[in-house]
């Protein structure tokens, strides 16, 4: 314990903590946006859905199946060319956030699609019978009725994003993952490593708690 | 002109998987539903009745034929016009299909929002509807806080919100217990009588038809095999499937097992007499037996009523001089349908 550098690294740890929080928050925001859109598209264009459209479904389904299983440590590098186009650079925290948001989008799209299956198709039918347009059904029935499970799904995705954000260091994205690798693992300083672990655990626990509370509030249970 | 007219309507579902066979759900249906009536459609599950009712508000699109509701041809109508047409057609469901994320108040508000009714007007209308179905005190409750009967009453209030001229009821009481069923049926009758709304009622329960329908159609394999005023169809069913349905309500002739058990206890000749409102009375039949000194006993059957009109089948065991029994059976045949049970 005596030869740990944890205390002199305090400011660096604080900065890494901020980077991780920022990275995760922005990636989660865009990931939820992108994932919800693709997830809704998957759900509604499927056979029997309100926008049933086989070609669209097949293409989307293929894209999600293609990108989603790529390990993030590879994906983040593979996304570099696209990151240069979209955020102007293939390195640093911007590139890391971009890759993370994109990967989260594909991941969340499946989570959203699956959670929408919990919505009783009967309520969609009822809304249609009342003369509601398809777009209205999506935004006033499908999403509100599925909101509880969706929040739990987003929480699940949040934990996965925190996990993946540790790899941001590959493109120089910083954050707690890089910090633990650089000052803990490579410097043989387990106290630093475990301090980082502890912080990540706290972030995940708090996020999960918030998600559970929100979902419970929405589901009134 | 009838409120709802179906002409040569067919619905074919494409195969669910490649190489499968397409399913003919509705196979050439012609139907007229008159304004102001409660029209029952009865059939076993898979007969096509749920599909048929969904063709009327185009939740399912007819493959062939024309459907006209209140002068508007539903078949081939563009989506935008169809949405307007649906405001005039309410629908209630077996599983109620209430929005679980909305309160009772906001469930009823939904179709009004869809119809673009201003907020103040909406509020007044919702209050009126909740009072009609007797749920004013539940306005702030969520569906999962309600009983089945209350849920269906919300469903009815919601379906009536835009003052439709037609209400489609798809197995609307099938998930309810007998007592609650009667409550909901009584409410539907009020909808029909007080608000003048035409109701098309899909069910597999003859009791429901008997209680509130004016006319009935019996469906089997996508076709309407028999239709007419409820009393006529029930008291003189023509088709075997109709007879099976009617037998759930009134006993016809005893089956073999029952007959064997009855024979052990009764020595006489068995005849089943079908009593109908028309064609002579029960007293004429019974006095015929009495006059000829025949001892008779009722061994099986029952009497039902529909809107105060009675009908039923009674199986009697007749004991007496064989010639007198023959003569009595022949004489009774003039007053009622009589059939010797072998």
TrEMBL record, chain A:
Sequence intervals crossing the membrane: 20-44, 56-79, 85-108, 151-171, 191-215
Gene Ontology biological process terms, A to Z: D-methionine transmembrane transport
Keyword vocabulary terms for this entry: Cell membrane, Membrane, Transmembrane, Transmembrane helix, Transport
InterPro entries: AA_ABC_Transporter_Permease, MetI-like, MetI-like_sf
Membrane topology: Multi-pass membrane protein
GO CC annotation terms, alphabetical: plasma membrane
Predominant location category: membrane
Record has Transport as a keyword: yes
Compartment(s): Cell membrane
Keyword Cell membrane: yes
ABC transmembrane type-1 domain: residues covered: 17-210
PANTHER family with a match to the protein in the record: ABC TRANSPORTER PERMEASE, TRANSPORTER, PERMEASE PROTEIN, PUTATIVE-RELATED
Family: Belongs to the binding-protein-dependent transport system permease family.
Record's protein name: ABC transporter permease
Origin organism lineage: Bacteria, Bacillati, Actinomycetota, Actinomycetes, Propionibacteriales
Automatic annotation (TrEMBL), chain B:
Keywords, ordered alphabetically: Amino-acid transport, ATP-binding, Cell membrane, Membrane, Nucleotide-binding, Translocase, Transport
SMART domains cross-referenced by the UniProt entry: AAA, NIL
GO biological process: amino acid transport
Cellular component terms (Gene Ontology): plasma membrane
Xref: InterPro entries: AAA+_ATPase, ABC_transporter-like_ATP-bd, ABC_transporter-like_CS, ACT-like_dom_sf, MetN_ABC, MetN_ABC_transporter-like, NIL_domain, P-loop_NTPase
Highest taxon in the source lineage: Bacteria
GO molecular function: ATP binding; ATP hydrolysis activity
Domain ABC transporter: 4-246
Alphabetized SUPFAM superfamilies for the sequence: ACT-like, P-loop containing nucleoside triphosphate hydrolases
Entry's family note: Belongs to the ABC transporter superfamily.
Function: Part of the ABC transporter FtsEX involved in cellular division. Has ATPase activity.
Oligomeric form and interacting partners: Homodimer. Forms a membrane-associated complex with FtsX.
Protein's name in the database: Methionine ABC transporter ATP-binding protein
């Amino acid at each position: 314990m005596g030869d740990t550098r944890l205390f002199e690294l305090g400011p660096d740890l604080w900065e890494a903590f901020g980077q991780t929080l920022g990275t995760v928050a922005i990636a989660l925001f865009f990931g939820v946006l992108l994932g919800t859109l693709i997830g809704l598209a998957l759900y509604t264009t499927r056979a029997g859905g309100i926008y049933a459209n086989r070609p669209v479904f097949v293409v989307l389904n293929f894209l999600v199946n293609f990108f989603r299983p790529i390990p993030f440590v590879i994906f983040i590098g593979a996304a570099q060319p696209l990151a240069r186009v979209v955020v102007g650079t293939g390195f640093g925290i911007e590139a890391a956030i971009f890759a993370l948001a994109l990967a989260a989008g594909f991941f969340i799209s499946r989570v959203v699609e699956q959670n929408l299956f919990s919505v009783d198709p009967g309520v969609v039918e009822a809304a249609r019978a009342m003369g509601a347009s398809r777009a209205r059904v999506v935004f006033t029935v499908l999403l509100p009725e599925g909101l509880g499970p969706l929040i739990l799904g987003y929480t699940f995705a949040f934990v996965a994003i925190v996990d993946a954000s540790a790899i941001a260091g590959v493109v120089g994205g910083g954050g707690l993952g890089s910090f633990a690798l650089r000052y803990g693992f490579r410097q043989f300083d387990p106290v630093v490593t475990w301090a980082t672990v502890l912080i990540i655990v706290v972030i995940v626990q708090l996020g999960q708690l918030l998600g559970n509370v929100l979902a419970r509030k929405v589901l009134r249970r | 002109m009838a409120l709802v007219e179906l002409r040569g309507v067919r619905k074919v579902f494409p195969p669910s998987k490649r190489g499968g066979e397409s399913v003919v759900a509705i196979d050439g249906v012609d139907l007229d539903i008159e304004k102001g009536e409660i029209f029952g459609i009865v059939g076993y599950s898979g007969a096509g009745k749920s599909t048929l009712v969904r063709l009327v508000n185009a939740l399912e699109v007819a493959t062939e034929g024309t459907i006209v509701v209140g002068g508007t041809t539903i078949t081939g109508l563009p989506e935008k016009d169809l949405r307007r047409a649906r405001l005039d057609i309410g629908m209630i469901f077996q599983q109620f299909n209430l929005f679980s994320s909305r309160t009772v108040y906001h469930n009823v508000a939904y179709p009004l929002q869809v119809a673009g009714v201003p907020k103040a007007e909406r509020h007044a209308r919702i209050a009126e509807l909740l009072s009609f179905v007797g749920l004013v005190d539940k306005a702030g409750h969520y569906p999962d806080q309600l009983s089945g009967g209350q849920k269906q009453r919300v469903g009815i209030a919601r379906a009536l919100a835009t003052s439709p001229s037609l209400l489609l009821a798809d197995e609307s009481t099938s998930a309810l217990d007998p007592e609650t069923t009667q409550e909901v049926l009584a409410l539907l009758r009020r909808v029909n009588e007080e608000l003048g709304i035409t109701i098309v009622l899909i069910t597999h329960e003859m009791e429901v038809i008997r209680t509130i329908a004016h006319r009935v159609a019996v469906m089997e394999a996508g076709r309407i095999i028999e239709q007419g005023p409820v009393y006529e169809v029930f008291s003189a069913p023509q088709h075997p499937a109709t007879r099976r349905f009617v037998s759930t309500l009134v006993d016809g002739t005893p089956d073999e097992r029952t007959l064997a058990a009855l024979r052990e206890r009764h020595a006489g000749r068995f005849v089943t007499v079908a009593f109908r409102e028309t064609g002579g009375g029960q007293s004429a039949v019974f006095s015929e037996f009495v006059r000829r000194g025949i001892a008779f006993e009722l061994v099986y059957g029952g009497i039902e009523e529909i809107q105060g009109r009675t009908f039923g089948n009674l199986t009697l065991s007749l004991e007496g001089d064989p010639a007198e029994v023959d003569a009595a059976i022949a004489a009774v045949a003039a007053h009622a349908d009589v059939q010797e049970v072998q």
